[in-house]
Input
Amino acid sequence: MKETLKVGASAEMEIITTPEMGITHLGPEAPRMYSTPAMISLMEQTSIRVLMPHLDEGEQSVGTKISVSHLRATPIGQKVRATSTLTEIVDIGRPTKRYRFTVEAFNEKEKIGEGTHERAVISVRQFTGRS
Output
């Protein structure tokens, strides 16, 4: 991991919600709304974007913790924008550090989600060699 990453670094992503992002697991009678798992996935992807420019070759990041509130419903077809801001870099006494983020999501009208997310940077080769 490069030493260029600083607290306050941020990223943003915007998507248009699709039926695959809906709450389909509840059956055909479920309302056609953007699901919590899809919102969390977007928040994670946005946090990854914060880290990506600072990773060395052969490194990736993995999620280690997430705590999110889904505040408002969003109909399928609306835009959703997620933001992620690095709030803390925690040295846990190993070669790995934890990267903590504040994450938020907004639909076309209002905030729909908020929370915190934590990631760790790993060597892909070492990580996949443990199986």
